[in-house]
Design a protein that fits this description.
The chain is α/β, with parallel strands linked by helices. The chain has 12 helices and 14 strands.
Length: 343
């Protein structure tokens, strides 16, 4: 089948949605399907179209002004509507508004949508909930990444998933080290992790932290690190940063992909939240009972001290999480998509 996917960002951009779309597409290619991805031209030096790993990629040039963006996207899609016409089905990853006008041009085209996350640290605005309900209306079936969406977005998904990842080779970690994976933003709790490090320092445990990520709180995080003279190194966004997890004693992460990668690396998951939606995001996870989920830097620091004093006390939870994570393969996720599409 010819499958057309819409994703706001894609290769070479690094992120959870981008990785999801890429891995899913690669699995579908192996099964003999033809995959085309329409995405934004997020950097001017990128090609407007290319083929990578047999996946056809078309990039839409968009203006920086958000209000003008949708008109440019709709115009481009109209000019390239042949891509829509020849697709056997279309799968949209979050960007519902891209296809809304074309529902009336191609009323019988099978449309499917995956909702990957949530907007910021605050409860979703009514207009976002309405937009997602419109997505459910135009779609034949929908996927939600996380059960929390049924509460916060009133979603009625046909499938709920929590991602997948590649196998990670385990290795002996460097002592007293931790790794942070994810954006440096309020909802990912970077400052809670750093405050916990400062508490550990006051208790004579100088934990060395490597941060793989970037975001709006980078400047604030660096200032805090410098002020308290913490052993922290910032690497920015690095592709396949999850392969660094086994080299560290602990992993700090509070997003589904990072959580799964940490479990597969057989490290305890230390996840934090600072708002209600993020708390629900974490506590609805199938392995929530095998994670530390907290919004308190002191509790986080105490748990880290407990781990280093007696790592064996964490073994049962780490093992249970690892056994679950081994089963979360891209092949399995692809099978769920194929079943959803009734292929």
């Amino acid at each position: 089948m010819t499958i057309l996917m819409f994703s706001r960002l894609y290769y070479p951009h690094i992120g959870g949605v981008e990785k999801h779309v890429e891995k899913l597409s690669e699995q579908l290619i192996k099964k003999g399907h033809t995959i085309t991805i329409i995405t934004e031209l997020f950097r001017n030096n990128l090609k407007k179209s290319e083929t990578k790993n047999k996946i056809k990629i078309f990039r839409i040039p968009v203006p920086h002004q958000e209000k003008q963006k949708k008109w440019h996207i709709w115009k481009w899609l109209w000019q390239n509507k042949g891509l829509i016409k020849k697709a056997d089905l279309i799968h949209i990853h979050d960007v519902i508004f891209w296809f809304l006008p074309f529902k009336f041009v191609f009323p019988n085209k099978p449309i499917y949508i995956t909702f990957h996350g949530y907007e910021g640290a605050n409860p979703p605005q009514l207009k976002v909930i309405i937009q997602r309900k419109l997505g459910e209306w135009i779609a034949k079936k929908t996927v939600c990444v996380g059960e929390f969406m049924t509460k916060w977005y009133r979603a009625k998904p046909d499938l709920v998933i929590y991602g997948a990842t590649d196998l990670i080779k385990s290795t002996k970690p460097k002592p007293n080290t931790a790794i942070y994976l994810g954006r440096l933003s309020t909802d990912t709790g970077i400052m809670i992790y750093l405050k916990a490090l400062n508490i550990l320092k006051s208790q004579q445990l100088n934990l060395k932290l490597d941060i793989y990520g970037n975001g709006p709180q980078l400047k604030q995080a660096k200032a805090f690190v410098n002020q308290h003279q913490l052993k922290v190194k910032f690497y920015g966004f690095v592709k396949n940063a999850h392969t660094k997890i086994p080299h560290h004693s602990l992993a700090f992460t509070s997003r589904y992909l990072g959580i799964l990668e940490t479990m597969l690396a057989q490290r305890p998951v230390l996840a934090v939240y600072n708002n209600q939606i993020k708390q629900d995001y974490l506590t609805c996870h199938p392995q929530a009972k095998n994670m530390l989920i907290t919004n308190d830097a002191k509790i986080l620091a105490d748990t880290i001290i407990k781990y280093f004093n007696n790592p064996k006390s964490f073994q049962a939870k780490v093992r249970q999480a690892y056994n679950w994570s081994q089963k979360q393969t891209w092949g399995k996720v692809t099978g769920k998509y194929l079943k959803l599409w009734q292929i």
